[in-house]
Amino acid sequence: YAAVAMRFLQSAIARGNPRCSLGPRSPVQSQHHFVVNTHDVDFLPMRRRDSCYRLTKNAALSLLQYKSPKTAGTQAMRAVAITFGARDPLDQVLRLAHEEHKQGVTASYYFLPRKSHRRDGNYSIDDPTTVAVMKTLRESEEMEVGVHGSYCSLDEPDGLAAEFDRLRELGFNPMGSRQHWLRFTIPQLLRALKCAGAAYDCSIAWPDEPGFRAGTCFAFPPYDFEREASAGFLEIPLVIMDRALLNSKTEDGDGVAAVSEVLAATRRYGWGGVSVLWHPTAFGGGQYPRHLGDAFWNLLDEGRERSETWLSAASFTREVWQRYADAGLLPARRLQ
For residue 202, which of 266, 269, 273, 251 has the smallest C-alpha distance? Predict the structure, then answer.
């Protein structure tokens, strides 16, 4: 609704000043619509028994929660198969990044820097295997490595800042983050991101439904009511998450029509600046039915047909920051 209201306002301004455009103009003349491509790394296959346990758990969820006996049976059989050396269907991070790289798409991969709650990831950020995956993402596949704020990261004033610092100590330069399980309150989040020196955030979303939780189909600097000023970073609304497709009962069978409608709204009223989230484990059938992973590639193909730009959150933030800074909504700063 915010974008609809702004569109009416822009039309009214254009009627009074013919030099103004009727619709919103992209900050980058050669790119007319942006989709920010993101992946939360909640699981890494450190040991085969980890994957066996996770597949067994996923099979139970598929049967009891998602009502998909076929998917549950496949996952249970794979849990047994990997104990005998079969390929791990949950080992998807580098496969996904490699395919994106081949297609000329960049993405943000968010890693959990701390493991202090049972809902945090199974891996340690300090483990050499984890570090090697992050370095491969950055150096070989040209992807962004960012912070996935842990489940308890906002429980202490400097908790999220410490997690940003941990990635910096490991040689990375995280520009932004998303909260794990989307666990936050707005005042907590604003304070924590400011303390961490973040340039952007991608946390405002609904976990189970596609749509616009903030009422916007564009990136915006949140308003800090405690300081009565702009929060100083860019919020990139998350409008589509993979698991939301489980609730999208459409004739196409994979929920693409439902989420395509969301992206169509962003094209209709603006130049984009919203994020989509597919967990790496959503590919290959190890966590969800296979059609959820296929839906990602279908949406990407649809975007390519519309000359849409899919890119990482860091790349998007660098592209658009100056427009907001020139308007006095973001601080003038050099983004690395």
Answer: 273
pLDDT tens-digit profile of 276-323?
A: 999 999 999 999 998 899 999 999 999 999 999 999 999 999 999 999
- The Cα-based distances of 62 to 46, 59, 71 in angstroms read 23, 5, 6
Give the residue among 153, 57, 167, 55 at the shortest CA–CA distance from 108.
167
Across 25-54, b (16+ Cβ under 10 Å) vs e yields: ebbeeebebbbbbbbbbbbbbeeeebbbeb
DSSP 271: S
Residue tagged 């968010």 (tokens) = 110
From the list 283, 88, 65, 279, the residue with the least C-alpha distance to 178 is 279
**Two tokens, residue 266:** 């962003």
Alpha-carbon distances, residue 113 vs 124, 161, 167, 235, 292 (angstroms): 7, 11, 7, 21, 27
Q: What are phi and psi of 31, to 5 degrees?
A: -120, 120
Find the radius of gyration of the CA atoms of the chain: 20
> Is the entire prediction scored with pTM above 0.85?
yes
Cβ–Cβ < 8 Å for 120, 157: no
Say which DSSP state 64 is in: H
From residue 19, give the alpha-carbon distance in Å to each of 10, 25, 248, 257, 270: 12, 13, 43, 37, 19
Percent of the chain scoring above 90 in pLDDT = 79
In this predicted model, what pLDDT tens digit does every residue of 109-130 receive, in sequence order? Answer: 999 999 999 999 999 999 999 9
CA distance 261 to 250: 12
CA distance 336 to 330: 16
DSSP annotation of 39 reads E
pLDDT digits (tens, 9 = 90+) for 15-63: 999 888 888 889 998 899 999 999 999 999 999 999 999 999 999 999 9
Instruction: Provide the percentage of residues in the chain whose pLDDT is more than 70.
Output: 97
Is residue 92 a contact partner of residue 283, using CB atoms and an 8 Å limit?
yes
